[in-house]
Amino acid sequence: MTKYVFPEGFLWGGAIAAYQAEGGYLEGGKGLTTADLMPIGQKRWDILMGNLTSFKPQEGEFYPSHEAIDFYHRYKEDIALFAEMGFKALRLSISWARIFPNGNDEQPKEEGLKFYDDVFNELLKHDIQPVVTMSHFDVPLYLVKEYGSWSNRKLIQFFETYAKTLLNRYKNKVKYWMTFNEINMLLHMPFVGAGLVFKEGDNMLQIQYQAAHHQLVASALAVKACHEIIPDAMIGCMLAAGVTYPYTCKPDDVQKAMDKDRESYFLVDVQSRGEYPGYVKRFLKENNLTIEMEAGDEELLKKHTVDYIGFSYYGSRATSTDPEILKTITSGNVFSSVENPFLENSEWGWPIDAKGFRITINQLYDRYQKLLFVVENGLGAIDVINSEGEVNDDYRIDYLRKHLKEMGEAIQDGVEILGYTSWGPIDIISNTTGEMKKRYGYIYVDKDNDGNGTLNRMKKKSFDWYKNIIATNGAVL
Ligand code: BG6
Question: Does the CB atom of residue 182 touch ligand 1 within 6 A?
């Protein structure tokens, strides 16, 4: 049996995002964000794709982010549970609109800043390192209404001010930073990834690629500021990763799979290597897309590259050039993929592929030769409380064990990985569907899709399992 050896000081932990956990959506003077307008149910998908019809929450709709799991008031209890599992790190995001309710206010809100100070103090008290994402799918709504969000270059300056405010305030508490969550998401769910809203006749691709450039420049400025303000900190990017397989070994399929991966990789190529790769310049030209740049942009991108590559991995994807095979594309998934006959799917149709995790890790390391950080991974599943009042989530343990083993294999190949923060260590609301029913946690939260429940927390079987993995630094895998 292979014994997996994880580096000393490996950052085991979990990851959450502000709008999926905090709730308290108007407390402490917080402004509304894009996430606060994403209802559960049929209309959600349309909105995520950029078809927003009103800038206000609508009567009769249920908005899961408004209360989420109430981490805003219960963070001490939750952090104590993470500490009991032995977490070394908690990845969480700061909600921009708690700090600047409109996104570009003259002064930051002390109440918002203090909230995160308290959360970081609580984490540090338990020797848990905060890993902070500056922007995780919640753009202040005012910026969307007034400026068209990231389609507008002005957002770069607003974000820079926000980033510098965070870096200065938390410089003694936070040593691991990340700029934009899943930066490639703006090409798949434009409202989620970048607050983009489209009108009839808009050239969507043009708007998306321009917005991507703005985020890339903003990210480089945040990297620059981080290196200046906290020289002993690390700051990374974050990619929604997952290798694309060719359906067959037909060269056209192989080429298509490579192109699919490049659609995402180009953003990290810029963030990590500091320049737009030739293949994306060609893609832009052939699609009549032009990215407007200002003098100095290219130099900024070149100079301020990230210290590590953060990424999420839920499963692999597959593609084909055969029209018959293309008919099997699974819908409802963020990344379109043809059905892979060798894999099983989760209850939400996401392919489960532990080997693909290893392949993805190896590819990323081969490509960038930089420290990696697995900042999301896990299984969204329906959990049932049995007659003994327990959740026996063996399926989750099985998923995680297989994935962790593959990560262990990659480490034996010499890949450097900073840590592993599994997604949703405590049940939180789902990004794609808004449901509570899609659970990832080691800790069960009593709340249903309609918002009913006590919000009480309860340990699942996986709680002790993960605790043991951390305690042995992965040796018992
Ligand atoms: C990632 C996001 O895309 O996947 C998270 O960074 C999200 O915010 C996670 O929650 C899982 O997706 P879902 O839809 O199952 O919540």
Answer: yes
- C-beta 112 within 6 A of ligand 1: no
pLDDT tens-digit series, residues 48-90: 999 999 999 999 999 999 999 999 999 999 999 999 999 999 9
191 domain residue, yes or no: yes
Task: Name residue, tokens 């990985």.
Answer: 417
Quote the domain boundaries for residue 36.
11-471
Rounded to two decimals, the pTM is: 0.98
Please report, for the domain that includes residue 293, its CATH number.
3.20.20.80
H helix runs in 126-203, sequence order: 141-147, 154-169, 190-194
Residue 389 lies in a domain: yes
Q: Which residue's CA is the nearest one to ligand 1's atom 10?
A: 431
**5 in a domain, yes or no?**
no
Work out the pLDDT band at 229, boundaries 50, 70, 90.
very high
Tell which residue, 95, 188, 197, 189, has the closest CA to residue 144: 197
Domain count, the chain: 1
Alpha-carbon gap, residue 68 to 435, rounded angstroms: 10
The catalytic site residues sit at 182, 376
**Ligand 1: nearest atom to the Cα of 348:** 15
pLDDT in the model for residue 331: 60
Rounded Cα distance, 426 and 463, in Å: 10
Say how many Å lie between the CA of residue 298 and the centre of ligand 1: 31
Question: Would 1 be classed as within a structural domain?
Answer: no
Strand 443-445 versus strand 457-459 pairing type: antiparallel
Residue nearest to atom 12 of ligand 1 (CA): 431
Judge if the beta carbon of residue 421 lies within 6 A of ligand 1: no
pLDDT tens-digit readout, 381-423? 999 999 999 999 999 999 999 999 999 999 999 999 999 999 9
Residue nearest to atom 4 of ligand 1 (CA): 431
